[in-house]
Amino acid sequence: xxxxxxxxxxxxxxxxxxxxxxxxxxxxxxxxxxxxxxxxxxxxxxxxxxxxxxxxxxxxxxxxxxxxxxxxxxxxxxxxxxxxxxxxxxxxxxxxxxxxxxxxxxxxxxxxxxxxxxxxx
Length: 121
Hints:
Elements: E1 18-19, E2 27-32, E3 35-46, E4 49-55, E5 66-73, E6 76-95, E7 100-109
Antiparallel strand pairs: 1-3, 2-3, 2-5, 3-4, 4-7, 5-6, 6-7
C-alpha cells in the first residue's frame, strides 16, 4: 500500500537525531504488505523518523511505501507504522563473497516518539 505523497531523496527530519552506538538486544523487522524484511541495524532515530540498514537493493524499497516496524525483545514488543521517504544504496555489503547489496532507508514515523525507547535499550 502506498500513500499519494510526493517525496524527494533529501533529508526531511528537522529534529535532533540519536545515533545508535549499541544495537538493541531484541530483533527488528520491517513488514511491507505482510512480507517480513529483517532490519540489519538501526542507524539513528529522531522524534519523527529513523534510518535503517537493510539487506537488498535500494530499488526494492519504493518511496511512499507504507511499512510496519516490529521490535521484539524478551521484555515486550513495539509495533509502529511509517512511510519510506528515501532509499539509497549502502557502501557496505552484507556478504562480500556473494556481493549481496545493502541499502539505507529513511522512514518517517506515523506515531512519533515511539522508537526513542531504543536510546535506553
